[in-house]
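During the reporting period, we have paired protein sequences with backbone structure tokens. One record among many follows, to show the layout:
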Amino acid sequence: HPVNFAQPSGLAYMIYTSGATVLPKGVVVPHASVVSMVTIGAPNAYCPSSDDRVIQFSTYIFDASVIDVFCALLSGATLITANESLKKDPERLFQLMEEERITWACFPPAFLHSCHHDPTTCLKTILVGGESPSQEIIRRYRNITFINGYGPTENTVCSTSYTYSDGHVSASNCIGTPLQGVTCYVLDNDQNLLPD
């Protein structure tokens, strides 16, 4: 009988981040947090469906890869990986996305800003994170599902999400509402809880 060493509180992975402090630190993420995020929090907010074809844009050293890989595989979606050279050449990446009929992607807003045209005609959903999307980017993708995911690495990739509605451009820094299973508090500068 194989021995199972994985425990809910055990290390799933460690990600190095500087976050708001600008000082590099290793963030230990336990198995329970990853499982909760991909099975409870993400499915109601931004996970692909079994009909989707997902491009894995994030490398494994970024926590967004947890969304690309585990949300895709656990939902039954098809996962297509892009090699590193394609990620540096949007035109070639978009060609791959068109050939593979990619319908779902997670990109940092900075990448979308560097693009001169839309990724693919098949794309139905874009999840962005890591920074606020600009009004220009929000407007560019107003005809598909465009979601802003927000959360510190310490909270296992995403804590909140906001879906921009068709034709309605909201402020670019909307972080939305907590994912299912997540509680968020808004504090003032003195760390006092603000009213609803």
Observations:
- The mean pLDDT is 88.
- The radius of gyration is 17 Å.
